[in-house]
Amino acid sequence: MAHNDTAPRGGGTPDSHGAAGGAHAAAHDAHAHPTWKQYKWVALILTAITVVEVWVYYIPAFTRTKLFVPSLLIMSAVKFAIVVLFYMHLKYDARLFRALFTGPLIIAVVTLISLMFLFGHLAVRLGS
Amino acid sequence: MSASPALDHIEAGPHGHHYTTTGLDSRKIAVWAFIGSECMLFASLISTYLIYKGRSVVGPFPHEACNPPVCATALKPILNIPVTSASTFVLLMSSLAMVLALAAVENRNLPKPTLGDRILGSSKLWLWMTCILGATFLGFQSYEFTSFVHEGLSIRTNLFGSSFFTLTGFHGAHVTAGVIWLGTLLAIDYKRGLGPGDAINVDIAALYWHFVDVVWIAIFTLVYLIK
Question: Rounded to whole angstroms, what are the CA distances from B48 to A53, A121, B34, B227?
Fold first, then answer.
């Protein structure tokens, strides 16, 4: 395959970028991307996990166990992480982008869990 | 060069890139910050849905049948998992099409000797695919909303209806905005062609599109699958 998936964007060299060339080089270095093969595997894995999620939904014996919800949450989290790391190429991108995403994400998740403890089903369970 | 050395670092670089002292494109920093804020928006909507889950006094209910006297007539569980699973698959595939569109734009100038290379290197094809798959997802959502209303669930029926339509409606609005955004990129591609110099614009649209996808991954599990 002739595609060079790790080719830097813009086609310019750091020297051609003038005074801020070093900074530009840093930006370009952070732009390595997964290959077509990796994209294909990511899509297959995401599809497989989705199939398993739906499959377990239709197993009454499993949905009644305590494993049902945690297993779905884990599978969902894995899908979420795969898309963010590979499709949004956060795995290959600058650390600042990771911080800009994971910081608010952590706040969002902590807020969600806190609200569930305050008002949701977790609060009911703790009170009973 | 600007008059002030302090402003040099925010001047646009080659290809219109807006580099800062971080060495990163300011537009990309902005879109990641925007995505971070969107995380909190959707977390609040999902929290609201989860808090109200199971607290509706009248049916229809998401996973449980509703029988008289709670409901005037017997109602089946309203969520249609097979249809939603299909729409989830469509959205996941749209993300694959989007990464291929971005790769095609970045590698436009590379030689494409084989048919496979020409197919993979066609940004128009993959942008079209992403738009069509996004529109298909919206079609699934329209079908779902319409069937819910026909079955007696509107945004005013019960707590489930209010929180469900608000959450999935907001997500649908984001998908709609994404399809329009991709449509504008497609129009530019037809007008003058998208090349490596435009990769940052496609990258930003792709980040937004993948974010819409990851939000749906969470919604699909938390709203549709967890009983």
Answer: 23, 12, 21, 16
A–B interface: beta-carbon pairs under 8 A: 199
Q: Residue B142: how many CB atoms within 10 A of its CB?
A: 11
Q: Are the beta carbons of A83 and B214 separated by less than 8 Å?
A: yes
Residues of chain A positioned with their CB less than 8 A from the CB of B116: 1
The pTM (predicted TM-score) of the whole model is 0.84
Q: State the residue for tokens 């956060």.
A: A90
A121 to chain B, closest Cα gap in Å = 7
Give the closest-approach CA distance of B69 to chain A in angstroms.
25
- Model ipTM value: 0.85
Q: At what angle do helices B81-106 and B199-219 cross, to 10 degrees?
A: 160
Structure tokens at B166: 């608000």
What's the one-letter identity of residue A109? Answer: V
List the pLDDT tens digit at each of the 128 positions of chain A: 334 433 333 333 333 333 344 444 444 444 567 788 889 999 999 999 999 999 999 999 998 899 999 999 999 999 999 999 999 989 888 899 999 999 999 999 999 999 988 887 777 665 55
Chain B neighbors of A50, CB-CB under 8 A: 85, 88-89, 92, 220
- For residues B28 and A100, give the distance between their C-alpha atoms in angstroms, rounded to a whole number: 11
Best residue of A1, A3, A66 to probe chain B, by most B CBs closer than 10 Å = A3
**Record: contact A100-B44, CB cut-off 8 A:** no
| Contact state of A104 with B40 under an 8 Å Cβ cutoff | yes
